[in-house]
Model the fold of this input.
Amino acid sequence: MVELYVVRHGETDSNSQGRLNGGLTDLPLNDVGIKQAQNLAEEINIEDFDEIYTSPLIRAKQTAEILNHGVHELKVDNRLIEARYGKWDGASEAELMSEYPEVFDENQFLFPEYKKYVDDGEDYEDVYKRVDDFMTEISKKGDKKIMAVCHGFISRSFLKVITGAQNISAIVQPGNGGVSKYRLTESGTRFLTYYGRQTDID
Done:
């Protein structure tokens, strides 16, 4: 059985500024984000892991590098890239909420219906499919401990796909540096162990 640890990257300036930090926004970690990754690295024995996967975006790769300490070869996987919000990528969430309040839920996350306003945005169902494909592939690796460093919406998508939750708005986003753990059997059964655990940055 595969133990899968899903890690959300550390903070970027676009996170702290309240901007949509999607797949078309490619910024490095800020000082807080670096500290978050360093603190998490102190809590994890990276040598216990067999494989480390990462989104190709800078913020995820940088987080993975800090966690990895050069121990493993980092495997870049495009299925872990953040949802692409098209022309809204990098925009101020406050400004979007003011202009389009109907596409934000009570936790200030975008409903899937945001696509009615952004033709070049990525459909949530396509995100769920690539996350599902990733898990199906790695579940066949036997008794391995695997880390996937990715993003906020991707973290939510892992939980949605595994639990079968109907409404993505029922799933809040882990904080930057949050870790979720799942167990995946080769037969296709998937289990949630915990979601969105964090270490303090103080």
Observations:
- The mean pLDDT is 96.
- Residues 124-138 form the longest helix (15 residues).
- Residues 2-197 form a domain with the Rossmann fold fold (CATH 3.40.50.1240).
- The first strand starts at residue 2 and ends at 8.
